[in-house]
Design brief:
Blueprint lengths: L6 E4 L12 E4 L2 H6 L3 H10 L7 E5 L6 H5 L6 H19 L9 E6 L1 H12 L6 E5 L5 H8 L8 E7 L5 E3 L2 E3 L1 H14 L3 E7 L5 H16 L2
Parallel strand pairs: 2-3, 2-4, 4-5, 5-6, 6-9
Antiparallel strand pairs: 1-3, 7-8
Helix pairs in contact: 2-8
Length: 223
Amino acid sequence: MNESRNLRVYLPPGYHEVVSYPVVYCQDGEEFFNFGRIATIANQLILDDLAEPFIVVGVEVDTSVRTEEYAPFGSRFEAYTRCFAEEIIPFIEQKYPVRQDPRQRVLAGDSLGGCVSLHLAMNYPEMFHRIISLSGAYYTDTQEIVAENDDLSWLDVYMIVGLQETHFESDLGVYNFVEINRSMKELLLDRGATVRYTEKDGKHIWGFWQKELPDALLYFLRA
């Protein structure tokens, strides 16, 4: 991408370089740490022996070009997804003892972050099998690409959407995220994916997603 990109890394209590760890890679890394409080949540889950120790990597994004990087029709999408899989992942794996099994890597994202996480898994199925999707922004382009896949039986997706997200104004227009996520759930199930799908009272904001992060993380990382 011909630029530098900040990464935020959370290391679990008792971290030791001779131990290998599952890893959660977060789109919108700054927001996952600041608004999602993912480091605090991870710490508590691990200290309470609910989750096995894991590492969190937040990949920061310039919000002014976020749609261009996260949406499949964006001008920076191909460069970003290649950078993520071919540069960021090897960089982290060189510096930290994270497990390299695709079942030990979790991609997490909110809104368009959920969308790009799904595309990463479809583009690199040998690398990513597990996704946390918080109110994923699965617009028409993404649904058409998923529909073209015959077999997604290797994919495991945790999806949640808020029931008050029926009229959300995004930079691309006004969308019913409940219907979008219901459609995506059916597309994924029809192609053999494992889907844990939940609808709850909530809006398209971090105040909702932060409360749901513990269950989302435990779905994949329960001790």
